[in-house]
TrEMBL record:
Entry GO MF terms: methyltransferase activity
PANTHER family given in the database record: BLR7975 PROTEIN (PTHR43464:SF58), METHYLTRANSFERASE (PTHR43464)
Example of a GO biological process term: methylation
InterPro entries in the cross-refs: Methyltransf_12, SAM-dependent_MTases_sf
Keywords: Methyltransferase, Transferase
Lineage top rank: taxon: Bacteria
Protein name: SAM-dependent methyltransferase
Domain (Methyltransferase type) ranges: 60-154
Source species of the chain: Pseudomonas laurylsulfativorans
Length: 238
């Protein structure tokens, strides 16, 4: 049986990686704002920390979270992790273009491959959870991230929540978002189909909170919302 990380990586093949930077900004209205605010939330939580080591899980594609954090905090260092080789290659190209490879370690594979040694001051998990099938896989990833965070360290969690079919108005508005960017009705169906393929988002904001509590994190503060998407800051307990 394939692991959930392997299944997710297979979804993000070369074709999807090549279009990710453009398509993700259409699918998520406010894509850049979400990543910028995530950096601001971490900086606000960590306060006047002179340096920090940040784990970016699922950073493949644009590496936008790292670019945003690095611009705000010139003394932070990063670990970019992604199980998809094409997505990680795309991220590496962005890191190189922004002169950030000297501040970023790049790891191809699941976060479970990293030592569980509480070495990170903060972490981001953006656009990942809704691609994992079932709550068990989501908990497994959250616990793996927790094991690599220092006590009290902040975690940014962002992604889709709500079962898509339960929110027909939001789903219809999502289709209109593509049409707004020039897609035909047939193209809209294809775009939505690709987005929905294998996706299993938590079914509510309360479900997100429950997952975090189950995995040893505090109540989360939401700081961004866009249609199905939400973004929260939580902290490791203990």
């Amino acid at each position: 049986m394939k692991s959930s990380s392997t299944q997710t990586a297979e979804k993000f093949d070369t074709s999807r990686a090549n279009e990710y930077a453009q398509q993700s900004r259409i699918a998520l209205a406010g894509y850049d704002a979400c990543h910028d605010l995530a950096a601001c939330m971490l900086a606000a939580n960590l306060g006047n920390t002179p340096s920090a080591n940040v784990l970016a899980v699922g950073a493949g594609g644009t590496a936008r979270e790292i670019i945003a954090m690095a611009k705000l905090e010139p003394n932070w260092r990063f670990m970019a992790v992604d199980p998809s080789a094409p997505m990680l290659e795309a991220a590496t190209q962005q890191l190189q273009a922004n002169d950030l490879l000297d501040r970023t370690d790049v790891h191809l594979g699941p976060v479970e491959d990293l030592p569980a040694d509480e070495s990170f001051d903060a972490a981001t998990l953006i656009g990942v959870l809704h691609h994992l099938p079932g709550d068990d896989a989501k908990r497994e990833l959250l616990r793996s991230v927790r094991a690599r965070l220092k006590p009290g360290a902040p975690l940014i969690v962002a992604g889709n929540h709500y079962a898509y079919a339960s929110q027909p108005l939001l789903l219809a508005a999502w289709g209109q978002r593509w049409r707004q960017h020039g897609a035909s009705p047939d193209e809209v169906k294809i775009k939505l189909g690709k987005i929905l393929q294998g996706a299993d988002p938590p079914h509510s904001e309360a479900a997100v909170q429950t997952l975090l509590h189950d995995c040893g994190f505090t109540d989360a503060t939401r700081f961004f919302s866009s249609l199905f998407w939400g973004a929260w800051l939580t902290c490791k307990t203990g």
